[in-house]
Amino acid sequence: MPVSVLSSKFTQGASDDAPVALANTDHVRYLPSIRKPQLANLWDTEAMAETAGQRLRGDLDRALARAARETGQQLEFSEVEAQLIEWAADAVDTADQLQTRYDAELAGEQRPTTLVKLSAEIRTCRRAAADWVGRVEIGDGRAKSPRHVRAGQARWNRPPAVG
Length: 163
Fold this sequence. Notes:
- By secondary structure, the protein is mostly helical.
- Helix content is 56%, strand content 6%.
- Strands 1-2-3 form a three-stranded antiparallel β-sheet.
- Helix 3 (52-71) packs antiparallel against helix 4 and helix 4 runs antiparallel to helix 5 (112-134).
- It is elongated.
- The N and C termini lie far apart (63 Å).
């Protein structure tokens, strides 16, 4: 899992020669070879290419912000939705990496078994990502079809059965 947060707790007050600690949501990893002056280049977002997972997260964040503006409410993803988004982002990143290997294999030896295996994994990752993103509700919830709304109202508004 990529490192997502540079923990200022570990870098504040540290000398420029002190090792830097990078914090992830589930562990802390120390990188003794990276010193504080090198961090500006390491996290230069303009120089760093955006991954497919980062683009997916950004798209979903923008969709949520748009829904919040439209409804006039403050909206945020639930914990479950945040986890689904994380899994989907990891899946599209994995699919992207596998696609790179697939393209290299296609340009190189073109072994059929390897191409088939990579292709299957890419499809599986993309299908999983689509499933997880599909479970995320943005806005007030799922849209209701007029047909189903009328059917529900007809059931609720009918006179009681006489028996």
